[in-house]
# Entry
Amino acid sequence: MATLKDHLDACPLVAILRGISPDEAEAVGEALVGAGLRIIEVPLNSPDPFESIARLARRFGDRALIGAGTVMTAADIARLGGAGGRLMVTPHADPDLVREAKRHGLLALPGFFTPAEAFALIGAGADGLKLFPAEAASPAVLKALRAVLPPALPVLPVGGVSPETMAPWRAAGAMGFGIGSGLYRPGDDAAAVREKADAFISALKA
# Structure
């Protein structure tokens, strides 16, 4: 199975579709994959999230890594695997959830904010780390963390990232970004999502 870093090397953006419904998921997924994104996350506080994940996995599973965000329980992880998802994302540092995700053969991208949390998650087998909320940190904080974290471990700032703010984070060692409302807000159609995705891709190339 491809690693998280493999997927981030293809495109270092994780699309976070908080609030999406199953009937919207495939059209929005097509817009994102068409723009070049290769990782899509449906937070579990969205309407019928496992159905959206299942539809995305069936349609794009050979081209994109599909997963769930806001994962809080072991039962969520079992349902995620059953829906065809392959990536678990949490908002918080829970090593037990990381171990459970790995037991199910999933990639694990848990949230953290402190060095102690980071190393506990790494010890549990995390494939990458989500620096959250990034608005409460800074590129300088990430640079300091990168000095002690494993060099090959992906760390992704999540929260408040825009096309204009990616460059300082990348210079500090970010290997990717989780993008939520900057890419999708409930009610956005596929054309609007494609336009915003294109702006992020253009900023990456610049």
